[in-house]
Specification:
The protein has a single domain (about 10-70), classed as Dihydrodipicolinate Reductase, domain 2 (2-Layer Sandwich). Helices cover about 25% and strands about 30% of the residues. The protein has two helices and three strands, in the order H-H-E-E-E.
């Protein structure tokens, strides 16, 4: 399948949604940190998933995962 539209591409959007949906499995691997909130922006040029986390001491942290697909002609 050739990607004809990259802003965002279907693959980027699907990947961002899957990453968001995997948050329960990710939380299991975060060494006691809890996912407090997840915000997704699937309409952006590069979709993102923002995780708000709380560590064992109660401190809050934010991690941003941004999805970028390279143009098909650069992949070999």
């Amino acid at each position: 399948m050739r990607t004809k539209y990259y802003n965002p591409s279907d693959i980027e959007v699907d990947f961002a949604k899957a990453f968001r949906d995997l948050s329960p499995m990710l939380e299991e691997r975060l060494g006691g940190k809890k996912v407090i909130n997840i915000t997704s922006d699937h309409a952006a040029d590069n979709p993102s998933v923002v995780y708000k986390l709380e560590d064992k001491e109660g401190d809050l942290h934010e991690v941003v995962v941004q999805i970028i697909q390279r143009p098909d002609n650069l992949v070999k």
